[in-house]
Amino acid sequence: MPETYEKLLQDTIEIDAPAEKVWSLVTDIPRMAKWSPQVVKSTVKGGHVQLGATFSNLNKQGLKRWPTAGKVVRFSPPTATAAGDFAFRIRENKTVWSFQVEPLDGGRTRLTERRETPDGVSGISMLLTKVVLGGQEGFTAELRRGIRQTLERIKAESEG
Q1: Which of 41, 53, 57, 114 has CB 3.0 to 4.6 Å from 72, enough for a Cys bridge?
Q2: Torsions phi, psi of 112, nearest 5?
Q3: Quick one: CATH architecture of 8-159?
Q4: Rg (CA), the chain
Q5: Every domain of the chain and the residues it spans
């Protein structure tokens, strides 16, 4: 029986900091290695994060390392009345990672991180996950823990 993947992974956290501050952190792709337990390093081509910007990542799992390439596909900063939406697509596996930055009353922010698969997951990614990264079930659990850890680290930095 072929392995399947979850189409949507997501988690949310509330942060005692204004949405603009949270937005400035989640859109700073080179700093993502500080928060995400899977990212070793990210470099933005041209250095400026905006819609259409491309970047390279070095990811990790234990001693394993692998490169990926991303492209910013949504970039709408939050306003006083609307949530901000920042998303990037990973070329190798077709997944879309996003952050929704929603202003709340009292200068607080609700931050949601998602991993979506609107076009499925590439066959090579499915094979490598099965053979190299411990299978879909274990890798998905690792991604869920990573999303939570990323949100908690962004919260700590935003509130610090």
Answers
A1: 53
A2: -120, 130
A3: 2-Layer Sandwich (3.30)
A4: 16
A5: 8-159
